[in-house]
Amino acid sequence: MTFPVVGMVGGGQLARMTHEAGIPLGIRFKLLSDTPQDSAAQVVSDVVIGDYRDLDTLRDFARGCDVITFDHEHVPTEHLRALEADGIPVRPGPDALVHAQDKGVMRAKLDDLGVPCPRHRIVKDPADVVAFAAEGAPEGTEGDGFPVILKTVRGGYDGKGVWVVRSAADAAEPFRAGVPVLAEEMVDFARELAANVVRSPHGQAVAYPVVESRQVDGVCDTVIAPAPDLSDELAGQAQELALRVAQELGVVGHLAVELFETRDGRVLVNELAMRPHNSGHWSQDGAVTSQFANHVRAVLDLPLGDPRPRAKWTVMANVLGGDYPDMYTAYLHCMARDPQLKIHMYGKDVKPGRKVGHVNTYGDDLDEVLDRARHAAGYLRGTITE
Amino acid sequence: MTFPVVGMVGGGQLARMTHEAGIPLGIRFKLLSDTPQDSAAQVVSDVVIGDYRDLDTLRDFARGCDVITFDHEHVPTEHLRALEADGIPVRPGPDALVHAQDKGVMRAKLDDLGVPCPRHRIVKDPADVVAFAAEGAPEGTEGDGFPVILKTVRGGYDGKGVWVVRSAADAAEPFRAGVPVLAEEMVDFARELAANVVRSPHGQAVAYPVVESRQVDGVCDTVIAPAPDLSDELAGQAQELALRVAQELGVVGHLAVELFETRDGRVLVNELAMRPHNSGHWSQDGAVTSQFANHVRAVLDLPLGDPRPRAKWTVMANVLGGDYPDMYTAYLHCMARDPQLKIHMYGKDVKPGRKVGHVNTYGDDLDEVLDRARHAAGYLRGTITE
Question: If A361 and its partner were Cys, which of A67, A373, B171, B207 is the partner (CB 3.0–4.6 Å)?
């Protein structure tokens, strides 16, 4: 059989779950992982241990793969171009991926496309931050325009590389890494949404229902699919926006568009991710085709699967590590308490605050579905003990 | 974390799908496979290549496993006892498993329990078969009681090791292997059903909806969940029967009880399988918890998951190999035709008549759900070309 080989760079939980989704598809899955202990390396047969920052390692890995895709956005752009020059399809390709790697490039491109974003500007030093903030101060007031958000254009995730800056003195820290810094207005949002779409090389695209994402301490806590009380109009706008971004940027695979819903009923793009994304984990148990299966189908240019929900409500809650390193007893308890609970563990050592898994619940009553997910995640973390 | 290691003996598709189901559970999965090309060996990280008939190989494999379970029933009973004597939990254990290994032992035990079975007897030669057949001839007729079914008590599957015998001359062949032969009446059944249950060591058990299984040439073709037009009473009887067999035989893990539904509305036990089973594949996409996930939970003595269906109707159709060795183009076509189709490929080389995968479909309209599954399976095999 000519079933192809998908090579995935990065051994985290996204690769682990992509492998899981690839098994029924009959594809061969090959992994480039930093260590044999990484989440995906524990469960994949064909693993190369190596450093994705080394081009020779990438080239050796790519040999025998029909397509290369990614668990993270950190592979250097020039290496991706080298693989493409070698004739290996890289999906998403470097010209698309750079928009998920570099927030400065992303903002500039979205501006070109007229896609609504928070007010933003690349800033060169703390004085420039003060000027950027002042530009945002309401006219005729004496406000200084703070707080504003500063982000290093590369390398941040889950609240890392992001600062809420309330004064010029606060603004020194983000410049210390020597990476360009993007300033953004602090949006007074009503809530955060995510519009997830999948696009294939021949241009087929599917849109998942727009979800609500609730953050705690800068980390995604729960995702509700679909976003409650979202007007059809705004949901449609968000889906269209994500499909347009996927097309204009030439994305292949899963694209997560993280959005702010403003208090006056608009959506603004917060972040882009070009890979399966935490805001799409609900789809494993809540959609006809999961984001992981559709990502695999897209990078292989196979027809995409139906993204529609299977339940009225699906809730995903992230399981973070707590103080107690052994989750197995709590895990057993959660299974006993809720036989419908869908647990997804990543095989990672428990450390306080580390994402080590997630749970999905679904049903007709949102309050009940939310309670079940939150209870399980809290119990696994150890913040709920009964 | 103390997440345990499940060792599975046998590298077939059942092990492949059990590994898939174990990934979200966070357990470690270890495989003993005949070759690195076996279906499961392609997708599991921790694979030992070896012969399950060799006790030393089994012992080496079992070291570091928290429990041993099986993709097939062929491990010699004395080896299982040796592993248990070494202190390794074997689930299902040898005392249970022998009933799935030896049809003679199974029939004797079910007789003891008063579980309804086809009329049967161990026969010693063709003359004995003639006598057995005659005992079943309707009183006062001149019929000879043929046809009858002959089965070798060990080693048969998918119609192999099973003969429909119409005369004394026909009856020579089954005795050639030198294995004891079981004669059974040929039941004039209305249809075949399967009652699938899962039982854990501490005695928790769950019952899946009773399904209808349709065979073509002795091989399972389609499974419909739940069995259409089955009375609640007979469905309940079948589930109770399976739960009782699981308990009385001390089964741990998934138990498939293949049943004949007679034309006068009774159920008779045809076969037992103590592992995930083809008649339960629908549960991957059609039930809250799949048979594979529940098998893993059971062998680890974890609380079992909800076995209830997620859709009104789910249909599984086996994909058999056809004349054309490359299925990929047909596979792509099936995905394009039906974005809701759930394809499960086993990574096996296509050979005519070989099970190389299955498809699941679900929905509210049984005719439509059946058509979609049959079309996809037929198209993949090459018997439907449009």
Answer: A373
CA distances for B15 relative to B39, B41, B116, B276, B290, angstroms? 8, 9, 31, 9, 14
- Name residues 350-379 of chain B within 8 A of A (Cβ): 350, 357
Other CB atoms within 10 Å distance of the CB of residue A157: 14
Chain position carrying tokens 């799908």:
B17
Residue of A nearest to B37 (CA): A45
A24: nearest CA in chain B?
Answer: B344
d(CA A293, CA A6): 12
Residue window 241-300, chain A: list those with CB within 8 Å of chain B.
284, 288-289, 297
With a pLDDT cut of 90, the percent of chain B lying above it is 90
Distance between A41 CA and the closest CA of chain B, angstroms: 7
Determine which of B2, B6, B8, B23 to mutate to test the interface with A (most A C-beta atoms within 10 Å).
Answer: B23
Contact B335 A303 (CB under 8 A): yes
Q: How far apart are CA A40 and CA A33, in angstroms?
A: 8
Mean pLDDT, residues A143-156: 88
Annotated binding site of B: 103, 151, 184-187, 192, 270-271
Q: Which residue has the tokens 């076995």?
A: B307
Do B168 and B261 share a domain, yes or no? no
Q: What is the pLDDT of residues A113-132, one digit of tens each?
A: 999 999 999 999 999 999 99
A193 and A311 in a common domain: yes
pLDDT-derived band at A199, boundaries 50, 70, 90: very high
> B260 and B360 in one domain?
yes
The answer to whether A101 and A182 have CB atoms below 8 angstroms apart is no
pLDDT at B159: 63
Q: Do B231 and B345 share a domain, yes or no?
A: yes
> Is A35 an interface residue toward B (CB < 8 Å)?
no
**Do residues B146 and B292 both lie within one domain?**
no
Query: In whole angstroms, what is the distance from residue B160 CA to residue B292 CA?
Result: 25
| Region at B145 (left for phi over 0; alpha for psi -120 to 50; beta for the rest) | left
Q: Say how many CA atoms lie within 13 Å of B187 toward its Cβ.
A: 22
Q: Which long-range contacts (CB under 8 A, 24 or more apart) does A206-210 make?
A: A206/A294, A206/A304, A206/A305, A206/A306, A206/A307, A207/A239, A207/A242, A207/A243, A207/A307, A208/A280, A208/A283, A208/A287, A208/A291, A208/A307, A209/A235, A209/A307, A209/A308, A209/A309, A210/A235, A210/A238, A210/A239
B302 shares contact with chain A (CB less than 8 Å): yes
What is the three-class DSSP state of A86?
A: coil
Instruction: Please give the radius of gyration of chain A, using alpha carbons only, rounded to the nearest integer.
Output: 21
Q: Residue A315 forms beta bridges with which residues?
A: A224, A361
Phi-psi map region of B191: left, alpha, beta (phi>0 left; psi -120 to 50 alpha): beta
Q: What percent of chain A has pLDDT over 90?
A: 90
Q: DSSP letters along B125-190, please?
A: SHHHHHHHHHHTSPTTS------EEEEESSS-BTTBTEEEE-STGGGSGGGGG-S-EEEEE---EE
What interface predicted TM-score (ipTM) does this complex get?
Answer: 0.96
The SS3 of residue B80 is helix
Give B359 to chain A, closest Cα distance, Å: 10
The per-residue pLDDT for B21 is: 98
Residue A151 and residue A103 in contact, taking contact as beta carbons nearer than 8 Å: yes
> What residue numbers bound the domain in which A275 lies?
189-381
Name every chain B residue with its beta carbon within 8 A of the beta carbon of A24. 17, 20, 284, 342-345
User: What's the domain count of chain B?
Assistant: 3
* CA dist., res. A256 & res. A279, Å (int): 8
Which residue's structure tokens are 């599957």? B157
Q: Binding site for ATP: what residues of B are annotated?
A: 103, 151, 184-187, 192, 270-271
